[in-house]
């Protein structure tokens, strides 16, 4: 009998491995879908704004259906575990901020172990110890009370327009095609950003 994979199993399969970062994105998405009373978005019913490019974003895509390709996943490089989710159906949006004080308590022993594992100098015993600790951390993230894990706020939110499909123009320099709004004019011809020479005098 073929058993349907759980959402968590699907997130692991998509990402490629289990880690605390993936668990963080999974938990954030689970909380957002519950508060917004939404299911996975087949089109652009949901919008997600992520403020990091870490492992958890993969779980956000799997869980919510918000992806770059559909235009309903927006990446803002802030380096923060902060996520905004909006429901076009309900015209509501949430900002979820993960509690770093709970998840990133100083642990010199684990910091040293992590350094060895990622530096390629860890023994097999140290690798096993690290994986065990990571597994415990994943379980903690997945099951800790919501109020300890994050702060959830309903916010006023201006939804961006839905994704548009634009015509492409051929770059006069390299010959490759580029989306019209991303093209520039150089010597009176359309060129792509790679072939465009920006002109600036410091302002």
TrEMBL record:
Q: Where does the record locate the signal sequence feature?
A: none
Establish whether keyword Metal-binding is in the entry: yes
All residue ranges annotated as the Formylmethanofuran dehydrogenase subunit E domain in the record: 14-151
An example of a GO molecular function for this protein is: zinc ion binding
* Alphabetical keyword list: Metal-binding, Zinc, Zinc-finger
Q: Which SUPFAM superfamilies match?
A: FwdE-like
Q: Does this UniProt record's set of keywords contain Endoplasmic reticulum?
A: no
Domain Zinc finger DksA/TraR C4-type per the UniProt entry, residue ranges: 164-201
Q: PANTHER family annotated for this entry?
A: DEHYDROGENASE, DEHYDROGENASE-RELATED
Name recorded for this polypeptide: Formylmethanofuran dehydrogenase subunit E
Q: Which organism is it from?
A: Desulfoscipio gibsoniae DSM 7213
């Amino acid at each position: 009998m073929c058993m349907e994979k759980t959402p968590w199993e699907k997130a692991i399969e998509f990402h490629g491995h289990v880690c605390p970062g993936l668990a963080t994105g999974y938990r954030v998405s689970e909380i957002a879908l519950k508060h917004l009373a939404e299911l996975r978005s087949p089109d652009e019913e949901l919008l997600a704004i992520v403020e990091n490019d870490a492992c958890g974003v993969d779980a956000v895509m799997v869980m919510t259906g918000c992806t770059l390709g559909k235009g309903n996943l927006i990446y803002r490089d802030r380096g923060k575990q902060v996520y905004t989710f909006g429901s076009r159906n309900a015209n509501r949006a949430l900002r979820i901020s993960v509690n770093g004080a709970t998840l990133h308590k100083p642990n010199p022993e684990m910091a040293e172990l992590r350094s060895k594992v990622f530096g390629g100098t860890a023994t097999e015993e140290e690798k096993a110890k690290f994986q065990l600790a990571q597994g415990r951390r994943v379980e903690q993230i997945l099951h800790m009370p919501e109020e300890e894990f994050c702060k959830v706020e309903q916010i006023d939110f201006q939804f961006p327009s839905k994704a548009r499909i634009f015509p492409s123009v051929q770059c006069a320099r390299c010959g490759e095609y580029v989306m019209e709004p991303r093209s520039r004019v150089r010597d009176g011809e359309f060129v792509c950003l790679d072939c465009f020479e920006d002109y600036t005098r410091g302002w």
